Amino acid sequence: MADTAPSETRFFWPVRVYYEDTDAGGVVYYANYLRFFERARTERLREIGFEQDELRERSGVLFAVRSVQAEYLKPARFNDALRVSAEISELRRASISFSQQILRGDELICEAAIRIACLTDGELKPTAIPDDLMQRIKDVL
């Protein structure tokens, strides 16, 4: 997957591990890493200038996870301060792929390749990403 070295152009979202994120062993429960990735993707789109609820109301589309490939490398624990990246790795007409990492300092904890699909609001059928969003994403790539 991607290089772990931080750079000025990469997007990171800070996440603090709460007690509720951990399992009985005090380690972050594996599914909660997906929640951390989701938060970073949402904030990345927000940084580009799009709120998902407004996109749904204005354009009648929403995004849903199509596929996830994750590698859990080291445990994160209660109270860890993490940084979650959300880098767009591929842009297609109806989907966006992200390369994401969770780091504790410079230590790589987890990484994932996640593809989200653009869907119609009512029928949940694949549809093209609205042109204005597509252009803004292209502008930051």
How does this model look, in words?
- This protein is an alpha+beta fold and 141 residues long.
- It has a single domain (12-140), classed as Hotdog Thioesterase (Thiol Ester Dehydrase, Chain A, Roll), CATH 3.10.129.10.
- The chain contains 3 helices and 6 strands.
- The chain has helices spanning 30-48, 52-59, 131-140, and strands at residues 12-16, 61-72, 81-85, 87-91, 95-104, 107-120.
- Strands 1, 2, 3, 4, 5 and 6 form a 6-stranded antiparallel beta sheet that branches.
- The radius of gyration is 16 Å and the shape is elongated.
- The protein starts with 11 loop residues before the first strand and ends with a helix.
- Mean pLDDT is 92; it is low at 2-8.
Topology:
Blueprint: E1 12-16, H1 30-48, H2 52-59, E2 61-72, E3 81-85, E4 87-91, E5 95-104, E6 107-120, H3 131-140
Antiparallel strand pairs: 1-3, 2-6, 3-5, 4-5, 5-6
How much beta, percentage-wise?
Answer: 35-45%
Radius of gyration using CA atoms only: 16 Å
Under CATH at level 1, the class stands as: Alpha Beta
Q: Level of helix content?
A: 25-40%
Describe the largest sheet: 6 strands, antiparallel
SSE order in H/E notation?
A: EHHEEEEEH
CATH homology superfamily name:
Hotdog Thioesterase
What CATH architecture would you give? Roll
Note poorly predicted spans: 2-8
Mean pLDDT: 92
End-to-end gap: 18 Å
- Which term fits the overall shape? elongated
- Oligomeric state: single chain
| Whole-number count of domains | 1
Give the helix tally: 3
CATH topology: Thiol Ester Dehydrase, Chain A
Structural class, from helix and strand content?
A: alpha+beta
| Total count of strands | 6
